[in-house]
Amino acid sequence: MRSMRRTIATIAVLIVAFVATAACSGTDNTPAVPISATTAVPVISGQTVTLVTHDSFWVSEGTLEAFTSATGVEVEVQRLGDTGQLVASAILTSGDPLGDVLFGVDNTFLQRALDADLFVPYESPALAGVAASLILDPGHRVTPIDFGDVCVNYWIDSFGDDLPVPAGLADLADPAYAGMLVVQNPETSSPGMAFLLATIAEFGDGWEAYWSALRRNDVAVTTGWEDAYYGEFIAGGGDRPIVVSYASSPPAEVIYADPPVDSPPTGVLTDTCFRQVEFAGILTGTDNRAAAEALVDFLLSPTFQEDIPLNMFVFPALSAAALPEEFIDFVELAEDPHLVDPAVVEANRNDWTEQWTNLVLR
Amino acid sequence: MRGRLARVLCVGVPAAFLGLFFIYPVVSILGLGLSGGGLDHLIGLSGNANFRGVAWFTLWQAVVSTVLTVVVALPGAHLIARRRFAGRRLVRALATVPFVLPTVVVGGAFLAVFDRLGMSDGAFRLTHTVWAILIAHVFFNLAVVLRTVGSFWEGLDPGPEEQAKVLGASPTRTFLLVTLPRLRPAVAAAASIVFLFCLTSFGVVLLLGGPGIATIETEIWRHAVWRGDFEAATALAFVQLAAVLAVVAVGNGLQRRRAVGLRTVVARAPAAGRWELAANLGLLGMVLGLPVAVLLERSFLSGGGYSFDNYRALAVRVDLLPLTAIDALVNSFVFALAATAMAVTVGGLASLVVVHGPRALSRVFDLGLMLPLGASAVTLGFGMLIALDEPPLDLRSSRWLVPVAHALIGVPFVMRVLVPTLRSIDLRLREAAAVLGAPPAVARRLIDLPIAARALVVGAGFAFAVSLGEFGATSFLPRQPDRMTAPLALFRLLGTPGQQLRGQAMALAVVLMVLTGLSVLVIEMRRGSVGGDF
Fold it and tell me: Measured between alpha carbons, how far is B136 from B77 in angstroms, rounded to an integer?
């Protein structure tokens, strides 16, 4: 027993030491270089700026390093869950933020973040190159970085002379397309929410009647994008030829095709698209204001912007950013995508989803 | 002097671990929510018909899932504990495999199985029904009962059964009246873990139950993350924790029986009969094998035929991921090792307190360290974010936070295996040793230690597997991109269209599964040498 006790005691001491080390290692990231008091421009070189973002964030190796070589500022990336989790975490930790800049809040969650005073205003000079339709906060508390359209996708081979490709949202309620559509639950899925907003933008007060018609037309509902695309849609072995997905899904179907293909097996109904815009904002409470501003500028630089499409499968906000070949060849962007004012979304979101649940699931 | 230090550590380490990483965060988040209007929500819940429906469903599906799991697993536990056959150790190791499989993969595999059996539509539809949830719960939790009960059963003295047989009792009667009562501590231990898992099950309910089905766990997530309604989420989290507390208290009471008599002489187990073996393995194969087979098939499907291409692709980084799938596996292993070390230390020390400590302290530890298993990932993750944010405890972006969260879930496994075993060490054994002249220290080393070590490795295997497959709590904690774990990488691969990515995700799931099986096998190799019963 004595030897057992000795072992236990040793292990216990190790654990305590380990916990203590872990506790201390998290605290020593204060910048070593003092901010110069004599110059007007603060010296940011040598600082570390922390970018808090969602699990889908990634850029090529070397991209963030380009920022470091230009400014001397190191970027530490912390990823946390999906967009919903990210925004909820940021709200819970507001005032004592997890980092200096947050990237990844989209226009469906934007108002919630703004209401919680998550961000301090910053008008980046790079905004000059961004389409005005993407700048959704006139106070510039957030800066648009990219956008992605949520659109109805279809399996090309399922349509032809007998059955034409549906023209738009209204056709999906036509009995000719019964049992073909699969959508995601807007209460548990981001594309599901975007599609609900597209129908609300298109039909206004008639959206409830539209969804009742979709239900009569045997629409399938899944919890998330994965089980819709891979479970019910033909691409994943299911039997439904129409699915709510993204405008960037067809190029992904080519880039990650197996076996290789020359053109995507899927197409996009461009009249059904809802535009999701992703923003970055400087978190209230940051000590690294100057470095954070530099990072936001960098996120809108051509270096970062042109790296976005193939890593995150969304489109750069900077109009002049060059697109990869696959995006030029296989993407047809909606000219007039649906958009709903973020304030209207936040004010009605919970009522809309509740009403939707009653109409479609109960 | 040394004895006192050991006692202080035995109590202090688990108490500090639980207090700092579970109670403090959870109390912080619940306190924040309840003070901000959550209390009114909580009071209003009892009158809310929708909530009553969700609560009732949560409860009954967990009860039925647990009962089904125990019933399906007991024959297998008997086979593993009391019969000799080739590949016994392999079967026991393979049973842990479902543990690490991400729900999104298993969910897909189950849907494919239902489809192939013609049960995705029509009168025998399973897809998006309660049945799908129940079947998946049996799949995921079978190992808990199989291994916890199996390991206990193996050490049980077969004497009373033999006496019953001599006295003319039928096998069924013997099992019901002689064996089952003596297995009660282990069955109760395993069942309480399974129950907590099913009570707080998330992915299975969302994916297999479909959009029409909700439990308290999914409602907490929906309110906190999607609706931004922290008050409602907190009220639900409070109810959930209260329910978990009650369940654990009852479960612990059932386990609190001492000394059922572990076997003294290790007799060679009889060889398994051919039919017995076939029926048992057939049942396990049905439940565990079918979804895994679908997964295997998909992992080899590539370029329109079957090949190892998907597996080769694991070494190449795709643009969507910050690292290769193999690097993600390495991360998962490092985290799992750290989590297992912590879980074994904390769980081991806490078990000693539960079994040998003062009564009040014993009950508090027994109850407290089980709770993390029944807390939702949302509560724990958000709690850690708001509580562990001040120096010297600013751990939010520490790389150790993820293994700590995994260890919290691993500790209950270590304890549920260890406590019943320690309790059952026959006092007579020790008395016999004393009579034969062994000093107490020697008796403990020769009797307690080998038996305890055997249970400890079973617990360690669980803790390791749980950490490898953990997704929920991990996703709520901030992580640097190069520390991505395998389940998170897999989820990301499945988030973008393209057969290549899907194939790679399936291959990654299979590798994760095989490596888990192997690790558990290796961990348990030690068990053979310590227990000496192979």
Answer: 19
Q: Could you tell me which chain A residue has the CA closest to the CA of B11?
A: A12
Per-residue b/e over B329-340, b at no fewer than 16 CB within 10 Å? bebbbebbebbb
Query: Do A175 and A293 reside in the same domain of the chain?
Result: no
Q: Provide the CATH number for the domain around residue A229.
A: 3.40.190.10
Residues 87-106 of chain B with CB under 8 A from chain A are 104
- Are A209 and A235 members of one domain? yes
The pTM of the full predicted model, rounded to 2 decimals, is: 0.88
Parent domain of A257: 149-275+334-360
Give domain status of residue A36, yes or no.
Answer: no
Instruction: Please identify which residue in the block is written with the tokens 């873990």.
Output: B193
* Average pLDDT of chain B, as a whole number: 86
| Chain A residue with minimum CA distance to B213 | A361
Give ∠ CA B465-B474-B478 in degrees, rounded to 5: 150
- A285 contacts chain B (CB < 8 A): no
Q: How many CB atoms lie within 10 A of CB B57?
A: 18
Structure-model confidence comparison of residues B6 and A152, the more confident one: A152
Residue B69's pLDDT is: 96
Statement to judge: residues A63 and A110 lie in one domain: yes
Judge whether A52 is closer than 8 Å to chain B, CB to CB. Answer: yes
Does any domain span residue A326? no
A261 touching chain B per CB within 8 A: no
| Position B98 confidence tier, pLDDT thresholds 50, 70, 90 | confident
Q: Is B232 on the interface with A (CB under 8 A)?
A: no
**Contact with chain A for residue B212, Cβ under 8 A:** yes
On whether both A138 and A158 belong to a single domain, the answer is no
pLDDT given for residue B13 in this prediction: 95
* Cα–Cα nearest to A298, from A54, A42, A72, A138: A72
Q: Which of A14, A190, A227 would you mutate first to test chain B, the one with the most B CBs within 10 A?
A: A227
- For chain A of 362 residues, list the mean pLDDT of each consecutive stretch of 10: 48 46 40 41 84 94 95 95 94 92 97 96 97 96 97 97 95 96 95 97 97 96 92 89 97 92 96 97 95 97 96 96 95 92 95 95 88
Going from the N-terminus, what domains does chain B have, and what CATH number goes with each? Answer: 2-265+275-531 (1.10.3720.10)
Q: Measured between alpha carbons, how far is residue B186 from residues A63, A197, B60, B83, B147 in Å?
A: 55, 52, 22, 19, 10
- Residues of B whose CB is below 8 A from A97: none
Say if CB B483 and CB B474 are below 8 A apart. Answer: no
Q: Could you report the predicted ipTM of this complex, rounded to two decimals?
A: 0.88
Number of domain units in chain A? 2
User: Within the 301-340 window of chain A, which residues sit less than 8 Å (CB to CB) from chain B?
Assistant: 310-313
Q: Find, among B60, B36, B40, B37, the residue nearest to B48 by Cα.
A: B40
Indicate if the pLDDT at residue B175 is higher than 50: yes
| Minimum distance, in Å, between the CA of residue A133 and any CA atom of chain B | 26
Select from A76, A98, A229 the Cβ nearest to the Cβ of B396: A98
